[in-house]
Amino acid sequence: MSHLPVTGIWRQCPHCQRNVHQLEWGKLQICPHCGYYLRLTASQRIQQLSESFQSLPEITAAPPFAFPGYQAKLAQAQQQTGATEAFNAGVATLNGQSFMLGVMDSHFMMGTLNTIVGARLRQAISAAQTQRLPLVLVIASGGARMQEGILSLLQMNTVLAAFDDLNAAGNFTLNILTDPTMGGVSASFAFAADTVIAEAGATIGFAGKRVIQGTSREPLPPDFQSAASLYQQGQLDAVVKRTDLAAVVVQLLRLHQRK
Ligand SMILES: [Zn+2]
């Protein structure tokens, strides 16, 4: 199989190493041979979880720091993804249910949390509250965006505060943790929803495995930071297969419908 190209319409599965045609990866990007999930882009995720999607007005701003090389990295991420930042939100409908859907994109600078992503998250949370809609967040993030320093860390508590207001207002909130959910995002709003589920196979944690291994000098279990082990330890409400995710979202929204 090694003679086949690994880019373009064929893509090698990182898990079973077989070359898979893009039609076989399908909309949900699942390897037909071993069941491995490729990471979805924000637009693929929106397609998976909505029948209609009306974006909120897009917040954009210049990055607050002239960190060396940051502008070029941002421009590159924008060119590669066609998105302006690592988070998108809008009013979605799925199977007759309306909700606020916010999606992080790990393809855009690893879905890192910066001032604009934070502002967009607060905008989505506040719009859900005003429009009395449930909030569904799909989380995929490497953590805080180091190029924005302390302002990036500040997003952790300001988003969390907005989240708390929404929870206090009684809106149903659902977080779906996908691969990867790490760092300052896992340490703030990732676990703040009424219901927190994970996509099967997701890595969820704070510091990376190698860092912890290096610091603790203790052997770590093979399933360390896996969705399955977090579920076993009671940190997640469910672990859901990608193929079942849309149906589970519909079911949860229906169960928590406001009268
Ligand atoms: Zn595979």
TrEMBL record:
PROSITE patterns found in the cross-reference section: COA_CT_NTER
InterPro entries named among the record's database cross-references: AcCoA_carboxyl_beta, Acetyl_CoA_COase_Trfase_b_su, ClpP/crotonase-like_dom_sf, COA_CT_N
Subcellular location field: Cytoplasm
Record flagged with keyword Manganese: no
Positions bound to Zn(2+): C13, C16, C31, C34
Domain of life: Bacteria
Cofactor: Zn(2+)
Co-factor binding comment: Binds 1 zinc ion per subunit.
Enzyme Commission (EC) number: 2.1.3.15
Database matches in Gene3D superfamilies: 2-enoyl-CoA Hydratase, Chain A, domain 1
Molecular-function GO term, any one: transferase activity
Reactions performed catalytically: N(6)-carboxybiotinyl-L-lysyl-[protein] + acetyl-CoA = N(6)-biotinyl-L-lysyl-[protein] + malonyl-CoA
Enzyme class: transferase
Keywords for this protein: ATP-binding, Cytoplasm, Fatty acid biosynthesis, Fatty acid metabolism, Lipid biosynthesis, Lipid metabolism, Metal-binding, Nucleotide-binding, Transferase, Zinc, Zinc-finger
Pathway: Lipid metabolism; malonyl-CoA biosynthesis; malonyl-CoA from acetyl-CoA: step 1/1
CoA carboxyltransferase N-terminal domain location: 9-259
Function: Component of the acetyl coenzyme A carboxylase (ACC) complex. Biotin carboxylase (BC) catalyzes the carboxylation of biotin on its carrier protein (BCCP) and then the CO(2) group is transferred by the transcarboxylase to acetyl-CoA to form malonyl-CoA.
Subunit annotation: Acetyl-CoA carboxylase is a heterohexamer composed of biotin carboxyl carrier protein (AccB), biotin carboxylase (AccC) and two subunits each of ACCase subunit alpha (AccA) and ACCase subunit beta (AccD).
Family to which the UniProt record says this protein belongs: Belongs to the AccD/PCCB family.
Annotated HAMAP family: AcetylCoA_CT_beta
Name of the protein in question: Acetyl-coenzyme A carboxylase carboxyl transferase subunit beta
Organism of this sequence: Loigolactobacillus zhaoyuanensis
